[in-house]
Write a structure and sequence with these properties.
The complex is a heterotrimer of chains A (about 290), B (about 800) and C (about 160). Chain A has about 290 residues and is of the alpha+beta class. Chain A has helices at about 10-20, 35-40, 80, 85-90, 90-100, 105-110, 110-115, 125-130, 230-235, 240-255, 265-285, and strands spanning about 5, 25-30, 50, 60-65, 70-75, 135-140, 145-150, 155, 160, 165-170, 180-185, 195-205, 210-220, 225. Classes of the chains: A alpha+beta (about 290), B alpha+beta (about 800), C alpha+beta (about 160).
Chain lengths: ~290, ~800, ~160
């Protein structure tokens, strides 16, 4: 590895000031697990790393905001999220997914901000956050802006976060009543593998009918994404096995899976079909948010 | 003081197997007990020695530049940019090595592999140059800067295609190594990619097929997999005095390394010292020459210590397990007896033969299975391709062969409506009957293996196959292996002045627990406790010759050598006592560090040493050499009256769940039964069986090296997944079948590989039992299974 | 402060003050091995997947092969060498000995440190908790059943010690 500059600012203002919109060799580093992998294989040779570890404080908390939503500081580790009672209460689908996300050591240091900023389509939380309607607060020396997670992932390892921006916070809004959710992680190789297909589903019932539905797919596709056709198929219907299968077919038709060592595009398409359906079935059996 | 005569008579004559006469059924105090491993403390506190962690003063670290093309001529190597980097000490190429070693080709079967590529490269990942620097980071950075220009040649990757006329020829000519007696039949060849075609002919297979009521023919394939040892392969070399060399290496075969490096350098063996420590796993990866010749050459060229330690990624470019294509044709009689079997196997050996010819021949001659078949024809082709080299991986090819015959046996049994277990019972090769090689089967407890499988699986109880998307199935398989022959092990047992004892042998403890087993054997023989015995790790300056730690041979071969050495030491001590006490040796017994006579006289070690050396100091050195008998097979027919010292029998059975919508298999129960003779340490033997079974579970369900034009595209544990805790079947068990082998040390035979043999076909047979789908290619990935399901339902998945 | 080549870090290592002169790109494993001769943490897969490089930083397990040494400045670092108390093995180490939760031993220190973490989180772990918690530690020799036994034995041992002070 070549030498680089390692700076450890103590405020977020200092941190963003040290980022550089022009230099691809300047990156922020939090837990660093993903970045270190790229550095070790020389896929990324930094000129400057801006460490966020001294920022902590407000950026490493989970709290409930005035609207009852969850505010998660970007430097919160995945382990902290996994065991957060607030997360478990508000969005148990996230707590459950965290248990099999990578491994304990990675979860101990990887942060939610890094998890999202990396843009790796194989991560478990992005599809879940997509269905929960989450958004992130990005800050730079130019100011700050909110980005819907739906607009965050632009392509394979590409996000809407600019080079001089940092994710400071994740906002998971208060989930309405009667919402059913599930995340299905399917691994094709060993059990502890990355997902071959990740599927998150969310729907809200009104008088026994699906009033609103969100379906998101990751890992099989170049980026985590919502699947509108499946959502449309569900909306206005009863949550039946037949409707779930129909929605799953719509999802399978809509996605464009990428072939890799974990499966061909055709196989992954089938797995989207199977797991969207199964996730919906699981969601229907899972306890909903507080009923009306 | 009288010094007894004949006190140093060494037992240095080659000993054949010990007499057949039954040994006295003595009560055993050390052997047969699950004694905790001697190195336990060091392995849990971080202090166990591994060569990967060795640092020598002033050493340089080497980073290998590797070929980026699968087959090509080297047009130019430009190291100027690398040399310009501060801290780079040297860049070594094949031509540099030639200035030191004019003929720098090595290999246990053929001298085909250059220390660094010369003129030509034959696979992606082949070492082309080495950058040396004191700082590994500098060496790594500089290695990226070495420019190599290639003129591409047409590659060939498929083992069958490589044997066809017109296939690109990978080696212009082949030179047999002539080192190992079992490989003496290899011939110099040119113009072919077939390094060896080995045949076994027994009866008349054509006549057998003509007379058969039904003939089955199938082709089975297994893909390449890799050892992925956690301590990566590593070697260090340093100059030793004015004309010697010391190599520290993570090797399973230190004696071979000394011989081969000496040969390359043109030195006598006594100028090369090779030492090892614990190995952090090996499974066949660290055999013969890997990095040893390279570090030796580098150290001699730069006159400094040199270390090269691979990364996990580089393990994938160094040695692999053979992919294989097996065509198997079987003729059946109406009564369910196999009357003829023809097996033709193409072994994908990759770019260099390594030990591929032994894999091909040794596993090949068992390719009809442990069955009594009148007419057999077995043909094996060891084939060069432009893949990374393939060598030994825990079974020398046996699991690829068992995969074929045990899957086909199930196909036949199903087709004939015979229970798979019953089918095997009907065809077993019993003791006293000739195997296809003509060798008479002995000490092979196949019936017992089947009985245990049946018991453990409750085979005669109706099985619930489930309903809905998840179906259940069960399957079994048996397999066998002939231990390698002929080979020699030599051991020394030192008894020191205070009665403490060291075993000095070149068996390498790479996790299989050989240190503890050898200590138990020595302790049993000397009547002392195992915990007090120290086993000296291989150091060719100190420990005597051993063929290698491979093929599950150590317990039997080295175990016998250690037993003989301990007996020799004991005999010497008794002779000293007999002379001193003026009594017959038969009146004496050596126990707990003292000699005791029937009349009650007792000589302590102090007394013995005083009697022998005139002071309480000295060493009594016992020596044992063990070479079991062997008769070379007829090269034309493969016939031999004595092809192996012992057969290793194994069986496995599995219960699985298969998700018919995803194709994912979950193994819920796995039983591995091994015929071990007598277990020296039952807990260690069972752990070996379970460990091997789990490793083969990975090879069965998801492990596979994936290639794109010869480039490995999953050379990391991120993309080449191995079994973790969540993959281990909830009900995993190992069962030892113990009938003492008449020539084994305390009845023991080998076990390290046994747990691998039968796992894959047992799972595939369970899959077929669950859903009626037969897959003939490993691994059984979810996609492969789902595709097979969908084919069988006439609604195939799209190909892409 | 452009491309500083080296940096001094101060930290606590197995209970003692430690100082190291490191290159900025070095991992904690490289520094522990080179400057402190501690090889219990060892790099194998190099990707944080096998667990051989496990070390505890401020009481939390991390993959030392993916952890910049610069980041342990001011931290408390514990390696497997720091578990034994004046030559007396930690109860977890004792359990790995008595159940032989290893074969080649290369992955063992990582398993032991992760077990220490596991038992802090789940003092009486179920099989499922053990398997999930340790799913990120790989053992190529696959001594998994014995490792699970060792974890349970360690849990019992620790409980016995705590209930009988």
């Amino acid at each position: 590895m070549k030498n680089f500059e390692l700076v450890e600012p103590s405020t977020i203002d200092e941190a963003v000031a040290l980022l550089d919109p022009e230099d691809t060799g300047v990156r922020a580093i939090a837990g660093g697990t993903a970045l270190m992998l790229m550095m070790k294989t020389r896929l990324f040779q930094p000129t400057r790393l801006v460490s966020l570890r001294r920022l902590n404080g407000a950026l490493r908390t989970v709290r409930t905001d005035e609207n009852g939503g969850l505010r998660i500081g970007a430097l919160t580790t995945l382990t902290e999220l996994e065991h957060s009672p607030l997360v478990a209460k508000a969005v148990p689908v996230m707590s459950r997914a965290l248990r099999t996300l990578s491994n304990v050591r990675i979860r101990n240091v990887a942060t939610i901000g890094g998890h999202l900023a990396h843009g790796d389509p194989h991560m478990d939380l992005p599809p879940i956050l997509l269905t929960l309607g989450a958004r992130v607060r990005a800050v730079s020396s130019r100011g700050e802006r909110w980005i819907d997670v739906a607009d965050l992932f632009l392509g394979y390892y590409q996000t809407a976060i600019a080079r001089d921006e940092l994710i400071a916070e994740v906002d998971v809004p208060l989930q309405p009543v009667n919402v059913h959710t599930w995340y299905a992680k399917f691994t094709a190789l060993s059990a502890d593998d990355w997902p071959t297909v990740g599927t998150a589903v969310w729907y809200r019932l009104e008088s026994g009918v699906i009033a609103e539905a969100r379906v998101a797919v990751s890992a099989a596709t170049e980026r985590p994404m919502r699947v509108p056709s499946a959502e449309a198929a569900l909306t206005g219907s009863s949550p039946t096995v037949q409707m779930f299968a129909k929605a799953a077919d719509a999802a399978a038709d809509e996605v464009h899976p990428l072939a890799d060592i974990r499966g061909s595009a055709a196989y992954k398409r089938e797995m989207v079909r199977v797991h969207v359906r199964r996730a919906l079935e699981h969601a229907s059996r899972a306890r909903s948010t507080e009923a009306e | 003081m009288t010094i007894p005569a004949r006190f140093t008579e060494p037992a240095d004559t080659t000993v054949e197997a010990p007499p057949k006469a039954k040994r006295k059924a003595a009560v055993r105090r050390e052997v047969g007990r699950s004694i905790p491993r001697l190195e336990s403390h060091a392995k849990v506190d971080g202090s166990a020695e591994y060569i990967y962690h060795l640092r020598l003063p002033g050493m340089l670290q080497g980073k290998i530049c590797r070929s980026t093309v699968p087959h090509g001529r080297i047009v130019r190597i430009d190291a100027s940019a690398a040399l310009a980097i501060e801290g780079v000490h040297a860049v070594i190429t094949g031509e540099d090595i030639r200035t030191l070693i004019p003929d720098p080709y090595y290999g246990p079967a053929f001298h085909d592999q250059p220390i660094l590529a010369i003129g030509k490269v034959r696979y992606v990942g082949e070492p082309v140059a080495v950058v040396l620097a004191a700082d590994l980071h500098v060496a790594e950075e500089a290695a990226d800067q070495v420019v190599v220009e290639y003129e591409p040649l047409e590659p060939v990757f498929d083992e069958v295609a490589a044997t066809k006329p017109g296939a690109p020829i990978i080696h212009d000519s082949l030179r047999p190594a002539g080192m190992f007696p079992d490989l003496q039949y290899l011939k110099g060849r040119s113009g072919t990619n077939v390094a060896l075609d080995a045949r076994v002919l027994h009866g008349d297979v054509e006549k057998g097929f003509a007379e058969a009521d039904q003939v089955f023919e199938n082709v089975f394939r297994s893909r390449k997999v890799v050892h992925a040892t956690f301590e990566p392969t590593v070697s260090l070399a340093e100059l030793n005095g004015s004309n010697g060399l010391t190599i520290h290496t993570s090797s399973q075969s230190p004696s071979y390394v000394r011989a081969e490096v000496s040969r390359l350098l043109g030195w006598p063996e006594n100028r090369v010292r090779v030492r090892t420590a614990f190995l952090g796993g090996s499974f066949g990866a660290k055999l013969y020459i890997k990095l040893e010749a390279l570090v030796a050459a580098c150290a001699l060229l730069v006159r400094k210590p040199v270390r090269i330690g691979l990364t996990m990624e580089e393990e994938f470019y160094t040695i692999t397990k053979h992919g294989a294509t097996v065509r198997i044709k079987t003729g059946m009689a109406k009564d369910g007896r196999i009357v003829a079997r023809e097996v033709e196997t193409w072994w994908n050996g990759g770019a260099y033969a390594d030990i591929g010819p032994r894999v091909s021949q040794k596993s090949g001659f068992t390719a009809a299975g442990p069955y009594d078949i009148e007419n057999v024809s077995l043909i094996n082709y060891a084939v060069y391709t432009n893949d990374p080299p393939a060598g030994a991986l825990r079974g020398f090819g046996i699991s690829q062969i068992v995969w074929a015959y045990e899957c086909q046996n199930d196909i036949i049994a199903r087709s004939l409506g015979i229970d798979p277990l019953e089918f095997r019972r009907r065809n077993i090769l019993h003791d006293g009957r000739p195997h296809a090689t003509g060798t008479i089967m002995t000490n092979a407890e196949i019936d017992e293996v089947l009985d245990r499988l049946s018991d453990r699986m409750h085979w005669d109880v109706l099985f619930d196959h489930g309903s809905g998307p998840v179906r259940r199935g069960r399957g079994l398989a048996i397999g066998f292996k002939a231990c390698i022959a002929p080979t020699t092990s030599v051991a020394v047992v030192n008894v020191y002045g205070d009665g403490s004892c060291c075993v000095s042998c070149s068996t390498v403890d790479m996790g299989q627990g050989s240190d503890t087993a050898m200590a138990q054997i020595a302790a049993e023989t000397l009547g002392i406790s195992t915990e007090t015995v120290r086993v000296i790790h291989p150091d060719t300056d100190v420990t005597p010759y051993d063929m290698a730690t491979l093929g599950s041979r150590s317990t039997y071969h080295m175990g016998n050598a250690v037993r003989l050495a301990a007996e020799d030491a004991r005999a010497q001590l008794l002779r000293i006592a007999a002379a001193t006490l003026q009594t017959d040796i038969e009146e004496l017994e050596y126990r707990d560090g003292a000699v005791i006579s029937r009349s009650g006289a007792r000589m302590t070690m102090r007394g013995l040493m005083l009697a022998r050396f005139g002071m309480q100091a000295g060493t009594v050195i016992g020596m044992g050499t063990f070479t079991p008998p062997y008769t070379k097979p007829d090269p034309r027919t493969g016939q031999s009256p004595q092809i192996t010292p012992y057969w290793m029998l194994a069986g496995a059975a599995a219960e699985i769940e298969v998700d018919t919508e995803t194709g994912r298999i979950r193994v819920t129960k796995l039983v591995n039964v091994g015929d071990v003779g007598c277990a020296i340490n039952p807990a260690i033997a069972k752990r070996q069986l379970n460990g091997a079974g789990t490793m083969q579970l990975g090879f069965t369900l998801f492990e596979e090296m994936r290639f794109n034009e010869g480039q490995v595209i999953n050379a990391s544990l991120a993309d080449y997944k191995i079994p973790g805790m969540l993959d281990v079947p909830e009900d995993l068990s190992a069962e030892l079948v113990e009938f003492p082998h008449e020539h084994g040390p305390f009845g023991a035979k080998g076990v390290g590989e046994t747990g691998m043999f039968s796992v894959s076909p047992a799972i595939a047979n369970a899959l077929c039992d669950a859903i009626g789908v037969r897959i003939m290619e490993l691994p059984l990935t979810p996609e492969r299974v789902l595709r097979a399901i969908r084919e069988s339902e006439n609604r195939p998945l799209e190909s892409e | 402060m452009m491309n500083e080549t080296r940096r001094i870090i101060r930290f606590t290592l197995n209970g003692r003050a430690a100082t190291a002169n490191i290159a900025i790109y070095e991992t904690v494993i490289e520094v522990l091995q080179r400057d402190f001769n501690l090889f219990g943490g060892r790099e194998s897969c190099g990707q944080g997947l096998c667990g051989c490089c496990t070390v505890l930083v401020n009481g939390t397990a991390v993959s030392g092969c993916l952890y910049l040494a610069a980041f342990v400045d001011g931290a408390e670092v514990v390696t497997v060498e720091g578990l034994a108390d004046r030559g007396v093995l930690h109860p977890i180490q004792q359990a790995f000995v008595s159940k032989t939760g290893f074969q080649c031993g290369y992955c063992t220190p990582g398993f032991i440190l992760m077990t220490e973490q596991l038992l802090k989180r789940y003092p009486h772990p179920t099989d499922d908790e053990i398997r999930h918690y340790l799913s990120g530690n790989l053992c190529r020799c696959a001594a998994y059943p014995d490792i699970i036994e060792a974890v349970k034995a360690a849990a019992n041992k620790i409980q016995a010690v705590e209930s009988d002070p």
